[in-house]
Amino acid sequence: MIRRRHSITRRVAAVLVAAILPSPLLATGQSVTAPLSPAEPAHATIEPAVVRGLAWLAAAQQPDGSWGSGPFRGSAAVTAQVLMALTAAGSTPGSGPHARQIARGIDHLVGRAGGDGLIAGDEQAAHGPMYAHAYATTALAEAYGETADDPRLAEILTAARGLIDRTQNDEGGWRYQPIRRDADLSVTAAMLVALRALHNGGFEVSEETVSRAADYLAALQNPDGGFRYLATAGPSGSPRTAAATFALLVAGRHDDDAADRAFAWLDAHPMPLDSADGYALYGLSNESAARWRWHARRRDGDPADGWSDWCGAVAARLLAAQREDGSWADPSCAEYGTAAAISVLCMPRGLVPLFQPAGRTAPVAEPQP
């Protein structure tokens, strides 16, 4: 069963009350950071890098409110990922140092919503609009509770949910186009995350749709613990293993053996930032979310689960890879790479409800979309 989370603002308050975070700096407009273990880079090292990255993203926002450059100019998928990164760093549409940028980004995504429920911009570089639809739905659903339950967003998100339901194929998955045809791991994982975000926002989500999608993903786990891309036989890959693991966790599939085997496979196959396939930051952002959710749910902070060591090693690599202007490179575009890197570095702050395991905060009243 998926339970609704607190809004981001309430999440900050709950985290502070629970003493998960150290002395709050919200009054000064600065960020709030969770305690770092000795294995993690010092806050004094991470914070300047995050601030520089956020400043770069703020300056890179296009006049229409979107983010993206090169082939990904006008991509709703990139815009949505940047919104999630700004949220992870502590801003909302109504508060924080990047509230204005978030509000403009939301307005851009709203303008990309079609009458059929599809939310997408120029997504040719991503093979089709369904990645964008999943990411945009997730970002808007996470923002919904911070916009006074905006009826405009409620209508768009209800239509977005409808498109997800009616385009699920017979296997239980989705692929690049909004039609009931083929399916793959990465688009299906993104859709499962979007469905979780919708439920978190108080929207009714079909348990059958979630169950069928989770069954499809679970069946893609290879005997070695990693995940393949399609239902047909294929090799395991690190980025897709991370994406599938996170999606299954947010769908409520807490199979300890399956998750342990996936994390063991990821431990044995770390993702170099200069990987030839170009999916390193995509993979690391998913792996960070999966490991954080697993860490918080299963061990409740027990360092024995390896979170601190993993986080410290990855953060050090990200800090070393940051460019002079504050951005991070990515084969897609620097806007996406910077958003993904910031999301990883800010994960221990615990400010995005989507990344928190069930049971960490009490449920709140359900809005009526």
Task: Show the helix and strand layout.
Blueprint: H1 8-17, H2 43-60, H3 76-88, H4 99-111, H5 130-144, H6 151-167, H7 185-200, H8 207-218, H9 238-250, H10 256-268, H11 280-299, H12 307-321, H13 334-346
Helix pairs in contact: 2-13, 3-4, 3-5, 3-13, 5-6, 5-7, 7-8, 7-9, 9-10, 9-11, 11-13
Number of domains: 1
Can you write the helix and strand succession as a string?
HHHHHHHHHHHHH
Total number of beta strands:
0
Taking all residues together, what is the mean pLDDT?
A: 85
Shape: globular
CATH class: Mainly Alpha
Low-confidence parts: 1-6, 9-40, 359-369
Alpha carbon gap, first and last residue: 20 Å
CATH topology: Glycosyltransferase
Number of helices: 13
Q: What's the story with the biggest beta sheet?
A: none
Second-tier CATH architecture: Alpha/alpha barrel
Helix/strand class: mainly alpha
Strand content: under 5%
Helix fraction, binned, reads 40-55%
Describe, in plain words, how this protein is organized in 3D:
The protein is mainly α and 369 residues long. It has one domain: Alpha/alpha barrel (Glycosyltransferase), CATH 1.50.10. It has helices spanning 8-17, 43-60, 76-88, 99-111, 130-144, 151-167, 185-200, 207-218, 238-250, 256-268, 280-299, 307-321, 334-346. Helix 2 packs antiparallel against helix 13. The longest helix has 20 residues, at 280-299. It starts with 7 loop residues before the first helix and ends in a 23-residue tail after the last helix. The relative contact order is 0.16.
